[in-house]
């Protein structure tokens, strides 16, 4: 409830601020942990996209940590979703996410 309220307030007061997108990711992560992958997915993806676009506005001492958390949350979403539902639809979502991560330069180093 608190994250939903925080997101609502931030969306109204500071809609284009990086903190709004981080809060969106936090809420998406909480929803994903409850097993509701479909509702969590757009929040997590929008959160990553919003933070990526606004990373220069973020304090340098937290930028990489917050971005990593959000990217890891999407990875966790798709891992859990794939384990529960190995459908072609979910596989296509995972493939699209991997391409997006590559475009952002967020793939793990080997």
Count the DSSP helices: 5
Please provide the count of β strands: 0
Low-confidence stretches: none
Q: How do the helices and strands follow one another from N- to C-terminus?
A: HHHHH
Give the overall form: globular
Distance between the termini: 39 Å
Helix content: over 70%
- Mind describing the biggest β-sheet? none
Task: Break the fold down into its secondary structure elements and pairings.
Layout: H1 2-13, H2 18-33, H3 37-53, H4 60-84, H5 88-104
Helix pairs in contact: 1-2, 2-3, 2-4, 3-4, 4-5
List keywords for this structure.
110 residues, mainly alpha, 79% helix, 0% strand
Structural features, described:
This protein has 110 residues and is mainly α. The chain is built from five helices and no strands. It is 79% helix and 0% strand. Helix 2 runs parallel beside helix 4, helix 3 packs antiparallel against helix 4 and helix 4 packs antiparallel against helix 5.
